[in-house]
Amino acid sequence: MKTLNRRQFIQRSVAAPVLAVAAVGGHDTPLLSSEKVVSSLLKISIMSYAFHGLLRRGMIDLFGYLETSKYRYHLQAVHLWSGYFESTDEAYLMKVKEAVGERELAIGEIAVDGAHVWDDDSAVRAKNHENAKAYLNAARFLGIPFVRIDAGGSRETMVWTDDEFDHIVKRFKEYAQYAQDHGFKVGAENHWGPEKRWDNYQKLYHAVDHPAFGLSCHLGSWAGTEEEKRIADRECAPWVCCTHIDWNICTGPLLEEKLTNLWNVGYAGYYSVEHHTSKDEYREVEIQLALVRDKLERFKEAGAPGTSEE
């Protein structure tokens, strides 16, 4: 998609300017315009994976991401991805805790890779289990309300065998109990393998049957037809603990519908944008934030859940 088309899209989609750019010290620094400062009170955040291209190039780290969220985008919360963590030992976690506190940020979630419950290799399963426990402990230490740990399983068949399913349920019951004992929740995400199928996630949710088990919903990422994805996003809304909203959803025709699903059930988590191209991340994340913020502000201004002026 060309830059011009994206600018045209923003001009059509956002009625009032959401971000102003001020030159500070010779650099273009995006600032909230004065009439939109109230926007920052909305529960909006950026999934730190959004900057994975910069991370790979050594141009950002976890502390730079915190700084970026607070002072470039003027947000009150962050959503962490395990790919930024140098360690899960207490000395490193204390640095993270101090940095978050200094910036008066909340943490909405930590998404953990390398901890999926089922893997065909028993040695990988054991290693992942230890990694999961390390990040569950990190959530306890940092006061994170939700931990995403993938269920795992075959990406090709998109189904779990009985043995796989039983193992996954057993582990999630264990993780959920630990989470409940320490004041947070845990769950999988609909982004790869069998967990992408809504019928599979329903089966998993009911089998785990624990108040501390929920869903990290990557909006629109369910397997199936477009209509099946729309149904899944609507029906899963009461279970959602956190969200990932990618570029295609933010700039597509279904953003309002997806957010309305959550707004109507009283979703109390963060609306967290995520970017995947690893290119032009700062600018395109800014666009995503503007689009999500605009919809949520319209919901608030309308005075009723899930309605807008459009």
Describe what this molecule looks like in 3D.
- This protein has 310 residues and is an alpha/beta fold.
- The chain has helices at 3-13, 52-56, 62-72, 90-102, 122-142, 162-181, 198-208, 226-236, 247-251, 255-264, 281-302; strands at 19-24, 27-32, 44-46, 77-81, 106-112, 146-149, 185-189, 213-218, 240-244, 271-273.
- It has a single domain (39-302), classed as Alpha-Beta Barrel (TIM Barrel).
- The two termini are 25 Å apart.
Topology, element by element:
Elements: H1 3-13, E1 19-24, E2 27-32, E3 44-46, H2 52-56, H3 62-72, E4 77-81, H4 90-102, E5 106-112, H5 122-142, E6 146-149, H6 162-181, E7 185-189, H7 198-208, E8 213-218, H8 226-236, E9 240-244, H9 247-251, H10 255-264, E10 271-273, H11 281-302
Parallel strand pairs: 3-10, 4-5, 5-6, 6-7, 7-8, 8-9
Antiparallel strand pairs: 1-2
Helix pairs in contact: 5-6, 10-11
Total count of strands: 10
Helical proportion?
Answer: 40-55%
Give the termini separation.
25 Å
The value of Rg in angstroms is 19 Å
Structural class: alpha/beta
Per DSSP, the total helix count is 11
Mean pLDDT: 88
Contiguous uncertain segments of 5+ residues: 1-40, 306-310
What portion of the residues fall into strands of 2 or more residues?
Answer: 15-25%
What CATH calls the topology is TIM Barrel
Helix-strand sequence = HEEEHHEHEHEHEHEHEHHEH
In spatial order, strands of the major sheet run 4-5-6-7-8-9
Largest sheet: 6 strands, parallel
CATH architecture: Alpha-Beta Barrel
Going by CATH, what is the homologous superfamily?
Divalent-metal-dependent TIM barrel enzymes
- Specify the CATH class: Alpha Beta
Counted up, domains total 1
Shape: globular
